[in-house]
Design a protein that fits this description.
Number of helices of chain A: 16
Shape of chain A: globular
Largest sheet of chain B: none
Oligomer: heterodimer
Distance between the termini of chain A: 61 Å
Order of helices and strands of chain B: HHHHHHHHHHHHHHHHHHHHH
Strand order of the largest sheet of chain A: 4-3-5-6-7
Structural class of chain B: mainly alpha
CATH class of chain A: Alpha Beta
Structural class of chain A: alpha/beta
Mean pLDDT of chain B: 91
Number of helices of chain B: 21
Number of domains of chain B: 2
Low-confidence stretches of chain A: 2-38
Radius of gyration of chain B: 25 Å
Number of domains of chain A: 1
Radius of gyration of chain A: 29 Å
Largest sheet of chain A: 5 strands, parallel
Low-confidence stretches of chain B: none
Helix content of chain B: over 70%
CATH architecture of chain A: 3-Layer(aba) Sandwich
Helix content of chain A: 40-55%
Largest interface: A-B, 39 and 58 residues
Strand content of chain B: under 5%
Distance between the termini of chain B: 17 Å
Shape of chain B: globular
Chain lengths: 389, 532
């Protein structure tokens, strides 16, 4: 279509100077009608106008249809996170959870793998949800919290502080896993802006097909199976693992070049603190009992000071993992001490739940029939997975 | 702002929308502003070059035009004074010389700017090579000059304008800003077409009212352009780069593959870019000259060059070939050669000499390297040989009637494709000797047996990519075949109801979205002709 005879567009058409038939539309002519503006209009002109409106409506309808087809293909091409890597499905699951939550966790894998929400419900009647994701950075946790606060106001927010070690965007794949599942809002826009690596583009987040189009030759049966509907992966954000791999020797801690957390990450911790204060939410800082990456004394000191300065509760569960939480690193971890398995996650939940109930007097919802029914369903899935493992 | 970037698409959407929303008198200023904003994104420093070339040629045009008007008035006055014919002739000639001088100064300065930024380092490279040959250890330092985007295109367009004013083809544009728009009109700034002021100016400055059909047709052309660029050119690009980037590994049959792949890439890239250019202009109601006429269906090289990069070819013909051919030294040479070499051969000497200059210039215009010069001269040699063999062809056709033979036509088309693709190898390899060497391996390294060894799947494109390329190329060919008897869009408009046409282009958009080589994981590739 690039050839010479392709450009035979009627010149009058191009210049928009197509002449009207002489005298067309003159007032007083047979068939002329008065338009709203008072100008005389012939029947032919009225017909032409009606025709144009019909064409415009048809074009709009076709555009919508095309957009629809593109959207359906977009859904097919997006990663489903239903196979080996499932963490990318966690963010979206929040919107399907039942009721207002008493406790909302935000953070990285040290929360979504280390605290059993089902245990919190069964032991304390706490309705909790973990908005966590793989290598979820502090600003992502902040925006996921801000996003959650559009729907509810929990009593307690628990933030795992390990993510403060990162002061800049890290990796597109993890960004995608944390952000793709968020519903669109100003918060999501800000979360993307805060998270994008240098070679990422906002347009790719707005129109995922632009990013994932090249998956057309990698599509598997999984993509078709989960094209329109996905399975629920988590148990209110908790990612259950049943394997056991005892903790062994950890790599030696590398000397810190700068003992202070970065400004960017700390600024978002400040924002989180302010947001919680503004909403009357108790913010609790925790360091989950994962053995690696190494949690430095200097970092611990900083967080303690920060918590003191802002009147926050800080629990370093790593220090009390064996004595008070009851973690047995030979049984309660599935990957050699990096993350808890289900027994470890239940112990962590038991310990933390007790502290939160004692300190903040959280309500026991187990008498709430609807909520119980919801948790019974989650619990049944949970038990099935636990026993299957 | 690459044509294939999201920013550019957003920029065009915004500009087209604003164009139709703004009052009439603001439409062309919007295009000027948009063009300069577009150019700014290529690098703010480059604005000085385009502004400089615009200013110089604008002043030259004005001075020539003013002189012409003045001298015409005076000549008119002389008519009444009953002056001798000779005196009027002298006066006329004196003014023409003045105008010629203004033109020469104007275009020399403009071309000098182009020469300095484009050819300084090439010249230094050659001087350094000569110094080495003569065992002189002194070497000149290269200059750190970046080539401003589209400078070859807009300089030629501006030079053409000055010459046309001198030739009295049209008046000079008095409004500097309107003239600046003619030079900088953004869709064609990057890779042409090289427009003539007489063709473009009227529509450029006319405020066009919105027409859904006009915008729609322009959009169709843009979509087709993106299909060529993203689905074909950029998809085959990794294979071309691998094949030509490692010549020591890819010889013989792989050179042939590189040659054909590059021909496809270049065609899809350049014609795709021009489709986008013309389509955007069409969306604004501005018709821009066509630059291609199915060149790979040509039966010989001369015809190919009448159908490939048409605006450049006609530019060289009008502003270089003809002026040289009718220059007084050439007329003297013609006289001399006819006297000494006979009427037939003598006639051809000045034509060939002018052609030589044109092809040398064409080569060096494409790039400051010997590869391009040899490529240009290669075209000249092939065309010259072809013309010299004309009597032989005639004899052959007299003996064997091939008129109307599809097989013979196919042979001719195939021959053109192979010849042009072979010459384009000079674009590919790093220097002239290597190009000759690699070309030679097609005949000396017989490795066609390894075609099925899976090496083609290790060139950076997968089996699925080849399938997309094959289907895309098939579509290109089919569309070109249909276009032989007229515009494909016209035919579609006549024969297909609007929803079906819409569906066809919507499908094309979906194909581009899914199968286009763009975004992360693909190198955002500049159009090849941007570099020229």
């Amino acid at each position: 279509m690039s050839e010479v005879n392709e450009n035979k567009l009627n010149k009058a058409e191009l210049t928009g100077t197509a002449a009207e038939p002489a005298g067309a539309g003159a007032a007083g002519e047979p068939g002329a009608v008065k338009s709203e503006s008072g100008a005389a209009e012939t029947g032919a002109q009225t017909k032409k106008r009606g025709g144009k409106a019909r064409v415009a409506a048809l074009v709009v309808a076709l555009l919508i249809l095309t957009a629809g087809v593109i959207y359906v293909l977009d859904l097919l091409l997006r990663p489903k996170y239903m196979g080996d890597v499932t963490e990318g499905a966690l963010t979206a699951e929040y919107y399907n959870a039942y009721g207002d939550h008493d406790v909302l966790f935000v953070g990285d894998c040290e929360v979504y793998e280390n605290f059993s929400t089902v245990q919190l419900w069964r032991e304390f009647g706490i309705n909790s949800f973990i908005r966590g994701g793989a290598q979820q950075l502090t600003w992502q946790s902040y925006y996921l919290l801000e996003d959650a606060l559009r729907y509810e106001t929990p009593d307690v927010v628990v933030f795992n502080v390990l993510a403060l070690m990162y002061n800049e965007p890290q990796n597109e794949a993890y960004n995608r896993m944390a952000l793709d599942g968020m519903r669109w809002s100003q918060t999501k826009w800000n979360a993307i802006q805060a998270s994008m690596c240098e070679d990422e583009s906002m347009v790719d987040y707005i129109f995922p097909i632009l990013r994932y189009h090249s998956r057309w030759n990698e599509l598997t049966s999984e993509d078709f199976r989960y094209w329109f509907k996905k399975d629920t992966i988590s148990y209110n954000g908790y990612y259950l693992r049943t394997e056991i791999l005892p903790a062994g020797e950890m790599p030696p801690a590398r000397p810190l070049t700068d003992p202070n957390f970065g400004d960017y990450a700390m600024a978002y911790l400040d924002l989180m603190t302010e947001l919680c204060q503004e909403k009357g939410i108790h913010l609790v800082l925790i360091k989950s009992p994962s053995l690696y990456p190494h949690w430095y004394e200097e970092w611990d000191q900083q967080i303690s000071e920060y918590a003191d300065a802002h009147g926050l509760l800080y629990i370093n569960m790593l220090d009390i993992a064996e004595d008070q939480v009851g973690v047995d690193y030979s049984l309660d971890t599935y990957d050699g001490g990096l993350h808890m398995n289900v027994t470890g996650a239940e112990k962590c939940a038991s310990y933390l739940g007790k502290v939160l109930v004692e300190k903040y007097g959280l309500t026991d919802h187990r008498s709430d029939a609807k909520m119980s029914a919801y948790w019974d369903e989650v619990g049944a899935r949970y038990d099935e997975a636990k026993n299957a493992g | 702002m690459l044509f294939t970037s999201y920013e550019f698409i957003g920029f065009v959407v915004l500009l087209v929308a604003l164009y139709y929303v703004l009052p009439k008198k603001l439409k062309w200023p919007l295009l000027l502003l948009g063009s300069y904003v577009f150019y700014y994104f290529a690098g703010w420093k480059f604005l000085f070059y385009i502004f400089g070339v615009t200013g110089i040629t604008y002043v030259a045009g004005l001075l020539i035009s003013a002189n012409k008007t003045r001298s015409d008035l005076q000549l008119k006055a002389m008519k009444g004074q009953d002056l001798p014919k000779d005196e009027r002739k002298r006066f006329k000639e004196a003014n023409r010389t003045k105008r010629r001088r203004i033109m020469a100064v104007g275009i020399t300065i403009a071309l000098l700017v182009l020469a300095v930024v484009k050819y300084t380092n090439f010249t230094i490279h050659n001087i350094n090579s000569l110094l080495t040959v003569f065992h002189i250890s002194k070497q000149l330092n290269f200059l750190n000059i970046a080539l401003p985007m589209g400078i070859s295109f807009y300089t030629f367009q501006a030079v053409g304008y000055v010459i046309d004013v001198y030739r009295d083809r049209h008046e000079a544009q008095r409004n500097f800003f309107k003239y600046a728009l003619f030079v900088s009109f953004f869709p064609q700034l990057v890779q042409g077409p090289i427009s003539r002021y007489g063709d473009l100016s009227k529509e450029l400055f006319t405020p066009h009212p919105f027409s859904g059909r006009v915008v729609g047709r322009g959009l169709e052309r843009v979509i087709w352009g993106y299909f060529k660029k993203l689905v074909i050119a950029d998809r085959i690009l990794p294979a071309v780069n691998t094949l030509i980037g490692t010549p020591e590994q890819f010889k013989g049959m792989y050179v042939f593959a590189a040659m054909m792949f590059y021909a496809l890439e270049l065609y899809a890239d350049f014609t795709g870019g021009i489709d986008i250019t013309i389509g955007i202009a069409e969306m604004l109601g501005i018709p821009v000259k066509e630059n291609f006429e199915r060149p790979f269906f040509s039966k010989n090289i001369a015809e190919y060059w009448r159908r490939w990069h048409i605006t450049m070819g006609t530019w060289f013909t009008d502003y270089i070939f003809y002026p040289i051919s009718v220059s007084s030294p050439m007329l003297k040479l013609s006289k001399w050669s006819r006297a000494h070499l006979g009427e037939k051969a003598g006639k051809r000497v000045p034509v060939y000499l002018a052609s030589f200059v044109v092809w040398f210039t064409t080569g060096i215009w494409h790039g400051a390297s010997w590869n391009f010069i040899v490529w240009g001269l290669g075209n000249f040699v092939v065309i010259m040989i072809s013309q010299e063999l004309e009597p032989l062809y005639r004899k052959f056709h007299k003996k064997f009637d091939t008129s109307g033979s599809t097989t013979y036509k196919t042979f001719q088309v195939g021959r053109t494709v192979l010849l042009m693709s072979a010459l384009r190898l000079f674009d590919c390899y790093r220097d002239v000797p290597l190009t000759f060497k690699m070309f030679g391996t097609m005949f000396t390294t017989w490795n066609w047996g390894s075609i099925g060894d899976g090496i083609f799947l290790q060139l950076g494109i997968s089996r699925a990519d080849y399938v997309i390329l094959a289907l895309g190329t098939l579509l290109l060919i089919v569309v070109s075949m249909i276009a032989r008897s007229g515009s494909v869009r016209d035919k579609m408009e006549k024969r297909l109801p609007m929803p079906v046409r819409f569906g066809v282009f919507a499908l094309l958009v979906i194909v581009i979205l899914i199968f286009g080589a763009y975004g992360k994981g693909y190198d955002a590739s500049q159009f090849i002709y941007n570099q020229f």
